[in-house]
Amino acid sequence: MSTSTASLDQKRALPRRGGARPRSLNRRRQILGALFTLPTAVMIATFFLVPLGMTFWMSFNQWPLLGKHKWIGLENYSAALSDPNFLQALQFTLEYTVVITPILLVLGFGLAALVKRGNRPARFFQSVYFLPVAIGLASGSFLWLFMAQSQIGPMWDLMRRIGLIGAKSNLFAGHWSSLMVVIAMVTWKVVGLQMLLLLAGLQSIPDEVTEAARVDGASGWQRLWHITVPLMRPTLALVLVFSVAGSLLAFDQFYIMTSGGPSNSTITAVYSIYRYSFIQFKLGYGAALSVLLMVILAMVSAVQMLLLRNTDHT
Amino acid sequence: MISDIRRSLPRAAWWTLNVALTVLFLSPLVVMASMALKSSGDQGHIPPTLLPSHPTWANFRKLTSVQGLNIFHNLLNSIMVSVSATLLVVLLASMAGYGIARTKFPGAGIVFFVALASFMIPFQAILTPLYMLLKNMGLNDSLVGLTLVYVTFNLPFALFIMRNAFASVPQTLEEAARVDGCGTIRAIVQIMVPIVKPGLITAGLMAFFNTWNEFFAALILITSQEKFTLPVTLTMVASGSFGQIDWGSLQAGVALTIIPCIVIYLLLQRYYVSGMLSGALK
What are the chain A neighbours of B45 within 8 Å (beta carbons)? Predict the structure, then answer.
């Protein structure tokens, strides 16, 4: 009672503010908050919402870089679904995703298990494995492009010494060998992130649980398969979607390292959109392909939600 | 099982495996540094040598004139774009984060929802209209335009971090400051900013790395070579002249791009790791 009187007195002690003060103060704070948020809202509206809406609109038009655009309804979409170049790019993107995702998952899991102890040396090694994550995909691509060059590249030379490749071979001349070089680079660059995420999941499993299973006579693989993996399902789903979404949007590494070759066999979906929009200047068609790509990604996100939700109930 | 790997693996094997992996992970950086410092005689050596016989800065000096381009000028472009985008992101996201978390004005929820929803949309899908939009605003082929685009791409995540940071500051603290006679703005700057500092650093760091390393938008939105940012400039170095690629200069350029990232990572690792984690778990 006495404290409330004291604060009342204090408020009265402030001049020129009547009984409406708390309310008007609240109002003023709201206005301030709205003003503070305005620049962010304007930026997101101008450079995100407007272009997003335009993407949809353009996709229904024939839209050259110069000259008038023309409404053509769903023609871009029907053309896309029977466009061998785009379908091949889509197929290659899926192929790349299907190959790289398990590699990242398994290696990330292995690294997480290696550094799980969390003592000083383990933390040091963890920092080393995470270091390439800070490096840009583009600069990493230029670095590995050199490493895999015939004759002068150190990685090429090492592979030749081991006997993996012949003395005259060119890694970028074959579809699978160039894909493997790209996958090696991407693995080096991003596996540290997968490790970090899986490590967070691993550390959330109490040691007692696996310990109890061990006492009950479960073998190492049984414990991995029946205890660790099910308990880590939310993390695994997250890591999976991370790698799938990243791979579906791949561009830099193929643009820089393979230029889409050999014979256009490593053109990804985004690469194909880039070529239609900014080399051939079919902007409307590029927009339709972008919408299709967004739909595919939304489906991946939906699957993620499903996987995550299912785990909540178990 | 996992906890046992470490226990059941003999100590020596654990060390051997980790040391081998460390060599594997760091070797590309050794290759980069070695090639960047090799003389032109060393560079063409077949098979390639591990280290330069006579280390030289010649490759970096050659970067001052690559097809009429001074790469250090492009380095400056990168620094300008990344630093100003980062500062703007941190400033705007803090203001909006405060507004949304602490004042609950009508519409705050909508702004935050739209920002979160934008995580779902890949920016690659909206680049064509962005290109046209910038053209209509007279900002095509302009570093200002590129900076504004980078700010927008990085705002949602920064807003997410800053809203949460401000929301976790106890209400009583801000009230106490006001009772003590602090104006709202002073209360924010003097009382709240120090508390949300980890969030500020994380948000800024993510924005900096994203813009410094960004390739696709810069490739499309900037067309004049002298305005290229560093990653796109490397395509110029890699395209070579007279059909010959100067691999030494290319690796010197790669080193210019990568070394700032590594230095900042080593200095602010804790914030970077927490940013990557919350970015994934958002």
Answer: 152
In chain A, residues with a C-beta closer than 8 Å to the C-beta of B276 are 133, 193, 196
Give A114's strand partners.
Answer: none
Task: Please indicate whether, in this complex, the C-beta atoms of B184 and A29 are within 8 angstroms of each other.
Answer: yes
Provide the 10 A C-beta neighbour count for residue A135: 24
Is the predicted ipTM greater than 0.85, yes or no? Answer: yes
Question: What residue ranges define each of the domains in chain B, with the CATH number in brackets?
Answer: 2-56 (no CATH), 71-281 (1.10.3720.10)
The answer to whether B133 contacts A224, with C-beta atoms less than 8 Å apart, is no
What architecture does CATH give domain A75-141+174-313? Orthogonal Bundle (1.10)
pLDDT in tens, A233-282: 888 888 888 888 899 999 999 999 999 989 999 999 999 999 999 999 99
Higher confidence at residue B12 or residue A13? B12
How many inter-chain contacts (A to B, CB under 8 Å) are there? 279
Q: Residue ranges of the domains in chain A?
A: 75-141+174-313
**DSSP for A117-143?**
T-SHHHHHHHHHHHGGGGS-HHHHHHH
pLDDT > 80? residue A10: no
What pTM was estimated for this model as a whole?
A: 0.90
A274 Cβ neighbours under 8 A, 6+ residues apart = A251, A255, A286, B216, B220
